[in-house]
Amino acid sequence: MSKIDELHKEYLRQRDELIAKMFMEEDAKAALSREKRGLQGMILPP
Known about the structure:
This protein is mainly alpha-helical. The protein has a domain at 1-27. It is built from one helix and no strands. It has one helix at 3-39. The radius of gyration is 19 Å and the shape is rod-shaped. The chain starts with a helix and ends in a 7-residue tail after the last helix. 0% of the residues are buried.
């Protein structure tokens, strides 16, 4: 495999990791927001 192919593969791996991290952070923020609403007595469907 050429160096360019190796770099491209590494770039795609890092990009996929970043996308996964962004989804996990968004899920955590949504869950925290939902819990805060629940504590305030404002249970709304997501």
